[in-house]
Amino acid sequence: MICVVRSPYSEQHVPGAEIWLGTKTPGTEVPKRVSAIASALADWPMVEATSHSDEVLCAVHDFALVDHLRTIWSRWGDYGVERVVPYLFPTAGLLGDLPLREPFAPHAAAGRFCYDTMTLIGPGTWEAARGAIDVALTCVDLIGAKTSDAAAIYGLTRPPGHHVTRSAHGGSCYLNNAAVAAEALRRAGHPRVVIVDVDAHHGNGTQDIFYARADVLYASVHVDPGAGWFPHYAGFADEVGVGAGAGANLNLPLAPGTQDMLWLDAIRKIVQRVIDFGATALVLSLGVDAAADDPESPLEITLDGYHRAGELLAVLGVPTVALQEGGYHLPTLGALVRASLQGLTRR
Question: Is 38 left (phi over 0), alpha (psi -120 to 50) or beta?
Fold first, then answer.
């Protein structure tokens, strides 16, 4: 039976809202996601995450980003708003050839480290995001130490993480849990690690972190960003890696409304690429927001589709860390996660 790792801090992050197209809208990445998943897995063994140092975290993220997230809430001024929200972004269009400087004002620093207006920071955001990193690292510990007889370990990570690049956060993500797990698996002795991302949206952050590396394959099936879907600027099929990482990146963008058959065909292609790559460990970015009832869903994947996806990945037969990414329809969220994990363990 699969082991579930969770953090006592995961529900402390309360985004409050998203600022989308200049308008305050209700957020979908809410604390109740944790209880919805945990309730569906209540009969499975639960393990509380243990504390870890920042060593692996700072191997995949710039220290400046980590330090910003750790301190910005305490430095945030009284601006008449309830959350940290960026308003100015130091893009190449703003700076040109000028150096990037450290801004004095915290409200200016927010836009240096966050690339959208949707991903707000509140009083418990750091604790939840850092707790999710401990969940990911505890999963790797359990795999590496062989203290569990499960073929896979599941980490109930919240907030999600696959949109966080080396130096910036966004997309309702703050720290990249999957990237940290992959780096930890490499340091634990696995020579070739694969990250398979089945979230409805491309994990631009995970791709960015490993884009020039040959030892970590990133493979993603997601809705086509060219059809107008987040992250818009990344996730295209011609993004295959650079330098030493050339060929170690696989994007399979799909049209909205694709449904199970073609989505599962894409996962079969990923499985073959993983076999050819010779991966010795798998990190599964388990987003279930491609499901038909999900408010963020354009792909219309069924419960059975997620179970079949898990079965396809189980064929790889390598130590697996599954970490939660998206999934926002609370009435079906837990069942979708459970079905995916049951497929992964062939149950």
Answer: alpha
